[in-house]
Structures are given as structure tokens and as C-alpha cells.
Amino acid sequence: MDRAGPEPLGRTVEAVVVRWEHVQRGDGPAALRVRHRLAALSEHAVDLLVVTGRSARRVEATLAPALGPGTRWVWPTRSGRPFVSGPDGPEPLAGVAPGPPARAVGAFLDDLHGRGVGPGLVLLVPGRRDAELRAAGAAGRCATVPAAGPPEVLALLDEQLRRRAHRRVPTVDDDPAWTVTAPAGLARRAVDALFGLATGGVGTRGAAEEHPGAAPTVLAAGVYRGDGADQELRPLPVWTGLEVGGPAVAEEDRRLDLRTGVLLREERGAAVPLRTLRLAHAERPGVVALRAEAAHDRRHPGAAQRVPLGERATSSGHGRRRFARAGDDALDAAVVAAVQRRGRDGDVGTVERIARYATGRRPPPLAEVVADVDAAEHHGFDRLLRDQRAAWARRWEEIDVRIPDDPALQRALRFCLFHLWGLASGAHGGSGELAIGARGTSGRGYRGHVFWDADVFVVPALAAIDPDASRAAVRHRLARLPAARELARRRGHAGARFPWESGARGEDVTPATGLLGARPVVIRTGELEEHVTADVAWSAVHHAEWCREPQFLLGPARPLLVETARYWASRCRVDDEGRAHLDHVIGPDEYHEDVDDDAYTNILARWNLRAAADVADRAGVVHDEATRWRDLAGRLVDGLDPATGCHAQFRGYPARQTVALTGRLRPPVAADVVLGHAGVERTQVIKQPDVLMAHHLVPAEAGPSSLLPDLDLYGPRTAHGSSLSPGIAAAVAARAGRTDEALELLRTCVALDLEDLTGTVVSGLHVAAMGAAWQAVLTGFAGVRVEHGALHLAPRLPAAWSTVEVRFRALGRRLRVQVDADTTTVTTDLPVTVRYDGGPPARVTASATFPRTPDACGRPA
Ligand code: IFM
Question: What's the predicted TM-score (pTM) here?
Fold first, then answer.
């Protein structure tokens, strides 16, 4: 016996599967109306599948007149082979073999999945005697309602149409592999940072629309206000603000869908809950969109007739359009335009808003920004959302990490990739430069100043994600070369010295004082933390090598290499025995200040001198200087003790006290707060990798066979008092084959933000840690390196993983590396040279599998 017809669904779906019997001619007025409803839904960007065994001609004759030429709909023919409607008539659905209708449903769902539409967003309505389709639905791949005839289908479609026509808030597909919920116990303001969305370099925190809190909701990469150390990211006009009357939201669920780049917020317990959904568009830089709904009476979320955007905003188009400008003439500015529409669906009030931000030294004229927002509105929210889902799905096809044995870590790493994509978005639609502040655009920690975090933590990650973005980050530094020259000159040196904390124009904005815990301290990093100059040069070379852009290095980026090398050449002191030194510096380990010959600084400076000499030779310029740089590089001491195989982190380090990192010093810990500034200086406790950081960035510059002795020495002495620390430590440990230790470090790294380990997420996400996490997987576990135009692989799996797959870009290719217990498989879209575990070069044209060789422990290496 057939069951009663389906209940209303109560939510919006993105695709509908019906049976031929629901739409066929001659089945009365209900079937005719179903055809018309399907046509109307397809106007709202809903995908359709009509399941039938009829011939293409018959189906076309019945449906085409109703559905019209722009509709995307699919059906299987008599042969069982699915066809998709196209502008020139039906075309076979690519890659699908003939088979029964259930297979067509499967193919349709696969196709949708590839466009970011998960099972929870597909409505399947089986026919009355339709065991086959019911079985297809029961497999959990879509939302299946009870069997129904045309009248019941009509009711379901009417509900969908009504929801779309009244701009109801859609939902997200709840796939645990992709959905991040608010971690229990985390402060709301921290979750706001976790749930930030970015496009075109503009970030919007996930703050409540009606109560955004004190932290600025919208920030843009490189848009600052103020001067000197006080210079900070400028809070921009807020597009999300809503006035919602009635009781404040007491309990709610927030879900960030990483797979499609959508944030959903739903009040719990209310009869008509407040719900909002927003996105920062992946394909339209700077375009953001929001829908909200709540009870129509006192709580209508669109109570304000206009988008707020702040007091200085102006309106046009009967107040529907609002625009504002923020910024002063000397610095980058932002322009924003927004439109909104209000609606009502019975007792539900709705609002839809679309805005477009543009930033830059000379942002585009307002008319252009308004035209963009008008175009986005014309395209329609439904289509913007559909395009967003598809764009993100394509991104994840290309860049991803898959660890089936560790779904929680997999999601955490995807969370990092998601926000790194957000950072990368700043390279698109802006000035061609990308300013990466310490917390991206997710908060004003460190006032948004640019540190070495950008150059050696984020750029390597971006190079493997989006080469345009890593190039833009290097260009940001390049454009600030004049300021770096000036800084070197003022300190009596040649060349260019980049500032420790860099401001809008590349000026030094490092503060002179700060707080250590609650105690005021003098900050000396601006004066002494000089390695950033070599880090900037390293990022240019890394980008060029990883992305295979030699012309970028020999052309536009060459001055970065040359000028930084000139700086080091004039900064070195050569002693009576001819050895070169860098005195009075702070290394990455900031617990020890004003030290001489910090290993990291010296090794990176040495690398910088040699790299500049190579570039000068290849470009055929400054030969005499290049010879001098090479000579000086050979003289620079690096603290390597041949007896122990270890590098001394700085002169005098071995004589400092050893302290066990246990009890209240258990890492990760701010050991300087626990032991005091002077106290920690007396010890060998270090904040973050210094010698090991050199091993990570320039392995060929570190002493031969020094990796394991250095790991043994510095691993137990590292407090991980900086968010930058655990990820790099993980990368180095994994490379050395200490994979289980590396895995623990990687877990700490991803917990920094997702569990707010250090209580600092409120002021933004630790983007360097995210870059380090991706490096730990890519260069650590998957063992990927690029050298001399070849892809080098030396993967190392921890015991807990039977496999890991990374998808990334390198050498102008789209690559996949899948590491299994006994084999490693490389897949590439264009031919690439691969050197596996130090073996001979192999040309891989599409895919190749390499046997994994046993390591010293007898396991595959
Ligand atoms: O650049 C880092 C530094 O290495 C440690 N303190 C925080 C800075 C900004 O993230």
C-alpha cells in the first residue's frame, strides 16, 4: 500500500529528481502543473533529473516546451544512458555508461557532487510503484520523500518555489568531512574569527549580524589607518549588520561548510528561528552575499530599510543602493556598494543583501563598484550561491589533503586550506600585490602588520595553492624595496633591510614597548630581528622555483636578491682570522635577545649571498660583487660543531642552563611569561625552531648529517611559545622519519586555532601556523620538494595512517601524490620530472607508481 503523500520539506534544496509519471502528458492537470513548476524552479538555478526509460525524442517533445532553453535537466533514455539538456538539444551526460535508471540517478548525484551540491541538498521523489528509485534514495545519497503522484509532487515543488521566491535562507549539506561547527567552550569572539569568510582580500568575521561585538567585522588586506607603530588595519563599513527585534538569540548553531564556502547560522528553540546564510564569492572578487530570516512581526531581520554601512554612507536608487568609502588618501582605501531586498513568506520575514568591496591605493571608481553589485544582483542570489558551490568544489578537486584514517585531522587541515584560499583571494581583483598581515583579515592581532610569517610560512603554502597569490605576496615586498633601502641607509648600511614589522608603505612599524603577560617590556625586535631581510629574498626564490618562473626571478625579483645581499655584505663583521659574523641580533627564538651569530640568521644570510650571486651570474650582471658575496658567504660562521654534529644556536648557547620542559613549562607554553624575561634568557629553552627552521628552509646550507643531532638537541628545548613553532617542527621531524612525533606536533599546530590553545584567536587566526600545517603535510609527510625544475619525493607515513593523498600545484602542474603503505603514486596534468627518494629522474606524463623503499626501521620509508 502506498503511504500518505509527503510532508513539506521545510528547507530549500538545490536539485530535484522526479519520475516520468510525474510529468508525462495525458496524466491530467497536475502533471502539466508539475512541468511548469519544474520550469520555474530551473529559473532559480535548481537542477532537475527526470527519470524515464523513454526515448530522447519523446522526453524532449514533452519537456522542452515547458522547461525552455536555459534549463539544465537530465534524463536517462530507453538505453538507460543519461542525457543532459544543452543549448543545441540533448547531449549524453559525460562519462556515464548505459544502465538502469538508478544508475542515472547515481550519475546525476555524482555530477552534482562535483558541483558542490551534496546529498542533503537533493530532493528525490520516487513514483508510486518505484522500488528502484526508493532504493537509490535509501542509499543515503539524497533526501528521499515517500512515494508520490503528481499532486503530491506539485505540493513539494510549490514549497520549493515559494521558498525561493520569498528569498528564504537555504541550508548546507551536513557532511562531517567538510562541516566545522563551533568548538565547545570557545569564546564567541574566537569563533567569529574561525568562521570568517574572505574574497578579494576583504574578510568578514563570522560575527552575529545583530550583535557583532567590539572587534572590527570587516578588514581588508593592506588597508590601514594611522602611523608608526600604531598603524593598524582599518575597520571597514560593515555590510552584515541587521536589526533584529525581539529577544536576543540565546542558543544557536553555526556551521561553516568548507566544501562550498558558506556560513550558516540557526537559532535554536524559537518557533520561527533567526537564520542567516552568507558567502564571500569565490569567483567574483570582493562580492559578498547574505540572506536572513526571522519572525515577520517584531523580529523582521530587514527592519532597517537600507544596508547600514555606517553613518557616512550615501544612497541612490530610492535608497536601495548604499555606498561608502573608507581610508585616507595616502594609504590604501576601500569602496563598498550594497543592495538589499526585503520579503515575507507567511510569518517569516526575509532579507537578502549583496555587497561589493574594492580596495587599493586607487580603488576603482564608485560607478564601477556599483555596476559590479548591480550585476551580481541581476545574476541573483540563487545563481551566486550555485556558482559559489561549484567554484569551491573545483578548488577542492585541485587542492586537498585526504587522510581517511584521521577524519578529524583531515578536516582541520582543510580548515587551514580554506583560510589560506581566503588569503589568496587578496591577489585577485586588487593591485597585484598581496599584504599578508599576521592574522590575515580575520582580526587585528599584531595590528595586521606584515612579518616574516608572510614570507616563509604563508608564501610556500600559497605557491602550492595559487601561484598568483604567492607571486602577489612577493610583489608586495618588491614594491617596498625603496623603503627597505632607506632603512638600510639610515642604519649606515648598503642595500636593503626589510623591517621586522612592515607597514602600509613598507616602513618599520615595530612598537618600542609591549606587555609580557601583564608586565611592560621593551621590544627590541625592530632593532635586532634582522633575518626577515633574508626571509624576503627566500620567498622570492622559493616562489620562482616552486612555480617554475625563472623569468620572474631574473627579471622583476632580481633587485630583491641583489639589494638584500648587499645589505648582508655590508652588515657582516670579518674578524682577524677572516671569519664573518653577524653580531647583535635576535633570531626566530625571541627568548634570547642581542646574541651574536644566531645560526638561523647567519645560515639564511649565507644562503641569501649565494642565491644573489647565482641570480647575478644567470642574469649576467654585477660579477665582481657576486664573487665577493660568494667569498663572504664561505666565511660566515654557522655554529656547527663537527664533534657533535650540532649547530650552536648562537655564540654561548651551549653554556646556558638546561631546564626540563615539564610541569608548568609543558609545551606549548609561553616560557618567557613563566620564567620571566631575564630568567628564560639564562636557559637553553627556546621559543620556536631556529636551527631547525634553517634545516627546513635551506637544507643544503645546514651541516651534513646535522639534522638528527639538531633534532635531538633542540626538540626537547622548544617551548612552542609561538604559534609558528609546532607546524615547522612537525615538518622537520617528519622529514627526518620521526613521523609519530611529527604527527603529535601537527595536531598541536591545528589545535592552535580550532581549540584556541593560546587564547589568542579572538584577535584573529594564526595564518602562519596554517601555512606551516600545510607545509608539514606537503613537505613533511608527503615529502614533496622542488629542485632544479624536478619534483622530489621522499614520503614518510606515521604509523597511524595507511595512506595520505595531497593535491597541489607545483612547476606549473596540477599534481596529486598518493602515499600508500608500499607504493607512492604521482598523477600530473602535464609531463613532469620526478625524482623518487633520491633516485634517478623519471619523466611522468600522466601517472606513475613508485615502490616505497624500506627505511632503517624496516618499514617502507
Ligand atoms: O613573527 C612572529 C614571531 O616569530 C613570533 N611572535 C609573533 C610574530 C607574529 O606572528
Answer: 0.96
Q: What is the CATH number of the domain that holds 323?
A: 2.70.98.50
Residue 858 has pLDDT above 50, yes or no: no
Residue 768 CA to ligand 1 center (angstroms) comes to 9
Pocket of ligand 1 (CB under 6 A): 438, 446, 451-453, 588, 590, 722, 724, 768
Between the CA of 589 and the centroid of ligand 1 the distance, in Å, is: 10
Asked whether residue 607 is assigned to any structural domain, the reply reads no
Q: Which domain holds residue 121?
A: 15-165
Distance CA(815)–CA(838), nearest Å, equals: 19
Task: Note whether residue 10 is domain-resident.
Answer: no
Identify the helix (H) or strand (E) that includes residue 713. Answer: helix 707-714
The per-residue pLDDT for range 440-483, each reduced to its tens digit, is: 999 999 999 999 999 999 999 999 999 999 999 999 999 999 99
Q: Please check whether residue 707 is in contact with residue 695, taking contact to mean a CB–CB distance below 8 angstroms.
A: yes
φ and ψ at 328, to 5 degrees?
-110, 165
- The stretch 266-291 carries a mean pLDDT of 96
Nearest CA to ligand 1 atom 5: 722
Beta strands at 646-647 and 640-641: parallel, antiparallel or unpaired: antiparallel
Residue 719 burial by CB count (10 A; 0-12/13-18/19+): exposed, middle or buried? buried
Counting ligand 1 atoms within 8 A of each CB, the residue from 444, 450, 453, 530 with the most, and so the one to mutate, is: 453
From 115, 134, 165, the end of a domain falls on 165
Domain membership of residue 436 (yes or no) is no
Hey, is 756 helix, strand or coil? Answer: coil
The pLDDT tens digits for 683-718 are 999 999 999 999 999 999 998 899 999 999 999 999
Q: What is the pLDDT of residue 17?
A: 87
Cα 290 to ligand 1 centroid, rounded to whole Å? 35
